[in-house]
Design a protein that fits this description.
Number of helices: 20
Order of helices and strands: HHHHHHHHHHHHHHHHHHHH
Strand content: under 5%
Helix content: over 70%
Radius of gyration: 23 Å
Number of strands: 0
Amino acid sequence: MPPLAEPTRRSAYLVAAVASAITLAVMLMPEVSFAASLEGLRVWWEIVFPALLPFFILCDVLMGLGVVHYIGALLEPLMRPLFGVPGVGAFAFAMGLASGYPIGARITARLRREGMCSRVEAERLVSFTNTADPLFMVGAVAVGMFRMPSLGATLAASHYISAVIVGLLLKFYGHRDPESSSAEAGRRSREPLLARAAHALYTARHQDGRSFGQIFGDSVRDSVATLLLIGGCIMLFSVVVRVLDVAGVTHLAATAVRWVLSPLKMSTAIIPSLMSGTFEITLGTEIASRAAAPLSQRAIAASAIIAWSGLSVFAQVAAMLHGTDVRMKPYLSARLLHAALAAAVTKALLILSPAILGASALPEGVLAFQPGFMWNMARSLASAAVVMGLLGLAAVGTATVAHPRPTQHRRR
């Protein structure tokens, strides 16, 4: 085996040292680690598992049946000019909007493994389709943490507007890549759009060759296995964040962030939320909601944290993309860009709607309802049905615009 390059060798030493230090800290603080692990387990079982399971199973079933291929062929004229990705990117984008992290990355990895997009197209796709779900921003952050329902629309709008902007900008990423150019040229066809979509569905179904029962069984098994991996990531980073906070590492690192915030005239009280949000999105947004800073700055910080998503989601995305040639560096750059854009859009929306800042918070005893496992599962199923309906309408509309019905002229 050839010797490692010097940067790779240093990275290996650094990762090993950090992992060893965290392991030692966990061993020295077993009670803190156990409590944080239980909290991560609760979040995964009550929120993440029921919210993602129906979407994971549905995505795998639709891929096996060729429905995604059909939708992709119909929406190719829409997604290709706007974002520089194949039509199947609309499926990943819609599912990501409805279900949240990390389903956009999982669908993108599946599309890349099946050769439905090039490497550059997959890197573009995962960078703007892996988004937070609206229920988390509106229900958990705006209502549950900030106790201000009026703030939910602002957080969701800024998140999705900035995600679309990231997608539009990434159209120019890798446009000179020969693989991307050849893939785009290979998709051009003079065949009618509906006929092309039907042919894509039949070809995908024929190549898959599994019965519906086998497709469903494989989808359930693979989805549960993926969710177990996501649960492990959530529990691990919950422990890491808590241990670093107790050990004082977060406080020391926060001093390095002060010089970045000082030119932006941001309060130093939001620094702990940004440090925690670097690792875990839920903890970061919760600390931001309780910071001793103006409401506008707390909302901007929460919006940036949601767009950044945290290293916990990064680990989940890396696990989803494992086995493909999709690189993580473009995704990292896109998350930084998304966070900056989300903060800027949030500030602009708050300036345009100053009444939001003047709204009164909910009283303490109002939020008695805590959604549990079954409620989140029902909400996820309903969201999946709505997404499929919207995708169907978009596909029909695109097909109608691309091939309008010929008008009949009367003879005079």
